[in-house]
Write a structure and sequence with these properties.
This protein has about 280 residues and is an alpha+beta fold. It is about 35% helix and about 15% strand. The chain contains 10 helices and 8 strands. A hairpin with a 6-residue loop joins strand 2 (about 25-30) and strand 3.
Length: about 280
Amino acid sequence: MNMINIDKSKCSKDGLCAKACPMKLIIIDQETNYPKADDSNSQICVKCGHCISVCPHDAIAIEGLDAVSFTQLNKNVNPSIEEIGYTLKSRRSIRNYKNKPVEKEKIESLLEIARFAPTGGNAQRLKWIAITSQVIIRSLADETINFMKTLVENNHPMAKAYNLSKLIEEETKTHDRIFRGAPALILSYAPKQYPITTVDSAIALTFIDTAAPSLGLGCCWVGFLMVAANQWKPIAEILKISDEDSLCGGLMLGYPAEKYYKIPPRKEAHITWLA
């Protein structure tokens, strides 16, 4: 079986598959007007599924992609720009959470959405760690503080810029500066040699961040942990991340302790038009 197979009995010769293929592995036969696969370069197929998704006649098959696993699009689900804009603009960083655990089913629902986020070359290299253990969350906070203490002791510029001495003191007293009392964390990691892990991670985590309010949840990005994560080995040990992998990003997750009633203003977009 070839990597890409085209069923001529179903094909309408509309050429949509050839136009959609990002790797240009499908070309149009000039004599028959049927699309055909460039099997000599099939090894560069990233199995993105564009050609199958764009074909309304189910005429395309890709080795390794089960047609049954494709989800039929619902044309009735088409939120307006106003609805999408409102959803994105009303999103808030949540730094105070209810003392209520996050259900495993809701975390799984968010990660199910995140796995459909775009990745470079459809690499899909991200892996996930979901943490609901307060013991582990506390250990991660403690090791983040230990890392910060080394920055203070060595007069690192970041120590002064972020007033880490005060942050360390407050975290020691309240245990709420690093993870804000969040009942759960979602972290992403990937192989170190993959060059665009942070980009792929940021996109996928933004999917989660945007979807979380629909489940009554809120998020905040784990900035302090990320500063320490890949420079402080005890954090990798707690997370059981191998030397071949690195942490890419993460979110605190929980039920917001407050409600928000307004969308605050933001700076006007700085746009340079090159028409």
